[in-house]
Fold:
Amino acid sequence: MKDPNCAYCMQGDLVAAFAYPICQMNTGYLYLFKEQSKKGRVILAHNKHVSELIELTDQERNDFFADVAAAARAVHKVFAPDKVNYGAYGDTGCHLHFHIVPKYEGGDEWGGTFQMNPGKVTLSDAEYEQMAEALRQALN
Structure:
């Protein structure tokens, strides 16, 4: 069931405020996070409107984590980060999603937890599309 107030369920303008579409994966939709102070940061939002991992069957959870891993491999391939951080939040937006956040040694926030939305780096639609296409290619 989709929630009409949920950005991930409704996609379109709601999610476009903070994310750029990359592609549909097996269990969810992959987006570039528009705030790109961590170059290559993406979000994988589950297809189902659930708040918690425990609301998925074991198979759904395993399949979702396989997609998280595939997205992380693509991020590593395209952006060559030194480390990737993973975050699952949603205190107010209760739709299961994972932030896959590349970190670069010596870079912003290296050695600490990433800020949710530092508001430092935004790009043009053409730049987002170039990054999204590189990730699409890396996923194939």
